[in-house]
Design goal:
heterodimer, A: alpha/beta, 7-stranded parallel beta sheet, 27% strand, globular, B: 244 residues, alpha/beta, two-stranded antiparallel sheet
């Protein structure tokens, strides 16, 4: 059986997890077995049965009130127990900072191989080989996974799910939750609300130092708003505190792979490109025609961001 | 307090990556190696804690002898001694197994490393190590204060951050702005030469092997749109690129 670790946010299965379920169901087809999802946290069975549309035949749901906080130790304990109970040999998770923590601990508990940043379905003609993105997207490696239990963290947009009308059977589980799993105390959570999650976003509008200062961000926010895009920024911008650190995209920040990334006033240093080079389409707007970013872009506009951005916003709103 | 800082040796982030031997090996010619950028933050914070609270810092690297310049640099920045597990760091589980073995011997209060390496970017080694040791782990940690037996830390979460407290011992994956990178001074460089560096053999077996490397397909030319016709971009994104 293929087991997919499924993230719930605000009562709904995250889009990246639906992709992971679809990816897992494709491996299940290749290996002539079934795919099941493991969902931890508060949601309802109508939402969970959606996993069936993406190829899971079953959903294991752990909804203990102790699991409401994102506690990687507790979640990993639930995942490891479910792997043992089901005999699953392949575990799939969408790459995210929380999932990474959960699968890491699970690997430690089960002596499993973990491979991150998987970009394709496995090649089973070579045992179990996966292609992974390395050096933040500068290259790829074909990795043979030789362990009995294999855990794959997949990048966004690795598969394009085709939904079916199949419904998954939901089974509530009551995992063992040892008290030592709950030693950490969260004292404060500071979270932007009503914002589109950057790692999950299909469309991203990002600003660099060419935006001149935090007080000039409105045209960029307007464009993001009109598109329904998440906002991001370059490292200098977050270093200068013009924008919050969780918006920083690049080698040492968030790595994104949206369908569309619009870079406004970003020169395109190699460290920034590392965070965005797996975007499907890159648009660069910069007044400097020599900006290195144009070499990596699909579409470019040489011009003043403060003139170009309102034009784009207007064009989108006019088409709506 | 005893702190273990785990560092990897990786190509400088500005390096052009290429491969040799029929794309089975990384081409090291002309590539400058550095301490993993995230590990460097972990090391910097460890040195600050040592200055504030008093601590001994052991730096640990899982890698071949060619990583020794990076280990010496860590000693010059302020670590007291070093251990190198003499084996190629092939996969996350295998590397974590080496770190956990050293950690069990040394009884460290804090095990710090970067949130991820800048070569494979998996970001799982700290979690595997913590599970092997049966202790808590957090990542990515942006702030860290130690109060007696307690750590107050801030970690980044999707769309924000979270403050939490946890008891030592802990394994933490670090990132900016936990501390500013430190540059070794002349005295540090001189004393680093004589600080102990122990080389030990690896235990266990790698769980993965890399068969071949490849480069991404070359990018097509960038289509330029005149600024005065900026609206056209939206049309192209809809009809040609089909992303809107």
């Amino acid at each position: 059986m293929i087991l997919i670790l499924t993230e719930i946010a605000d009562g709904a299965i995250k889009k990246s997890s639906l992709e992971a379920i679809y990816y897992g169901s494709k491996i299940a087809e290749m290996m002539e077995t079934t795919a099941s999802a493991l969902a931890i946290g508060n949601t309802d069975s109508a939402e969970l049965s959606k996993a069936g549309n993406f190829g899971a035949t079953k959903v294991f749901h752990a909804n203990d009130s102790k699991l409401l906080n994102l506690n990687s130790m507790a979640y990993a304990s639930v995942l490891a127990e479910t792997v043992k109970n089901t005999g699953a040999k392949v575990i799939v998770a969408a790459k995210s900072s929380f999932n990474d923590a959960v699968i890491a601990r699970t690997a430690g508990a089960l002596r499993a191989a973990v491979v991150g940043n998987v970009t394709e379905l496995p090649n089973l003609s070579k045992g179990f080989q996966v292609k992974v993105s390395i050096f933040t997207g500068k290259a790829f490696a074909d990795v043979n996974v030789n362990a009995d239990i294999k855990i794959l963290a997949i990048k966004k947009n690795v598969v394009v799910p085709v939904e079916s009308n199949n419904v998954a059977l939901v089974e509530n589980i009551s995992p063992t939750l040892a008290s030592n799993l709950f030693a950490e105390k969260v004292t404060e959570t500071i979270k932007a609300t009503g914002m589109i999650s950057l790692p999950e976003a299909d469309l991203v509008v990002s600003g660099g130092r060419g935006m001149k200062g935090p007080e000039y961000w409105q045209p960029l926010l307007d464009l993001a708003d009109a598109l329904g895009a998440a906002t991001a920024c370059s490292k200098p911008v977050s270093d200068l505190d013009w924008r919050p650190h969780h918006e920083h995209v690049g080698q040492t920040g968030v790595k994104v792979s949206p369908n569309l990334y619009i870079a406004c006033g970003i020169s395109g240093a190699i460290q920034h490109l590392a965070g965005v080079n797996s975007s499907k389409v890159l648009v660069v707007i910069n007044k400097d025609p020599e900006a290195p970013f144009f070499k990596a872009a699909d579409y470019g506009i040489v011009g003043d961001v403060f003139e170009v951005l309102p034009k784009l916003t207007k064009a989108i709103l006019a088409n709506k | 307090m005893k702190i273990l800082v785990c560092i990897c040796s990786v190509p400088d982030t500005t390096s052009k990556i290429s491969f040799t031997d029929g794309d089975t090996k990384l081409n090291k010619a002309g590539v400058t190696y550095i301490i993993g950028p995230y590990d460097d933050y972990a090391l910097a914070r460890a040195v600050e804690l040592k200055e504030q609270l008093g601590a001994t810092i052991t730096v640990l690297n899982v890698g071949g002898a060619d990583a020794e310049p990076q280990i010496r640099k860590a000693l010059a920045i302020g670590a007291d001694d070093a251990i190198r597990v003499d084996v190629e760091p092939t996969d996350s589980y295998f590397v974590a197994e080496q770190i956990a073995a050293v950690a069990k011997e040394g009884n460290y209060d804090l095990i710090l490393m970067g949130r991820e390496t800048s070569d494979y970017n998996s970001g799982v080694v700290h979690g595997i190590v913590a599970e092997m040791l049966g202790i808590s782990s957090f990542s990515p940690v942006m702030q860290l204060e130690i109060n007696g037996n307690e750590a107050n830390l801030t970690r980044e979460i999707e769309g924000g951050k979270e403050k939490l407290t946890a008891s030592l011992p802990l394994v933490l994956g670090c990132q900016e702005p936990i501390a500013e990178w430190k540059i070794p001074n002349m005295r540090g460089i001189m004393t680093a030469r004589t600080k102990p560096l122990k080389v030990i053999p690896a235990a266990g077996l790698a769980l993965t092997t890399t068969e071949k490397y490849s480069m991404p397909a070359p990018k097509g030319a960038c289509k330029m749109i005149p600024a005065e016709d900026a609206e056209k971009l939206i049309e192209l994104l809809k009809t040609e690129a089909k992303v809107l």
